[in-house]
Amino acid sequence: MAGGVAEWLNAAVLKTVKAKHLRGFESLPLRQKENCVKELLPIFIWVVVIGAAFAFAWYQGYLLKLSNYLQETQDELKKCTWPTVAELKGSTVVVMVSILLLGGFTVFVDFFATLMVRWIMLI
Prior knowledge:
Elements lengths: L1 H12 L15 H32 L1 H18 L5 H38 L1
């Protein structure tokens, strides 16, 4: 019964209507606010750090340099000639065949090297 009175007093102080349903301090609104602040603190710190990094980059002129670099890159890419779909398919086939041939050669050499090492070990 004493626990019920303590819960009623806590609820009355915090102006909570449903005092009978409170189980402990963790369910009180005051505790929930503290947890909210603890959860938002890392986010706030990251916002400040990122904002400071952005301000430093802007002050030093790095953002302008980055913007110029991206614009020049875009201009250069417009000058490039890109392969057609047929050329791209042909190049893909050539690469795949080359990989298969190189892989087969590697397996062949490895197999015979293994046979040679086993033959030497038996002697």
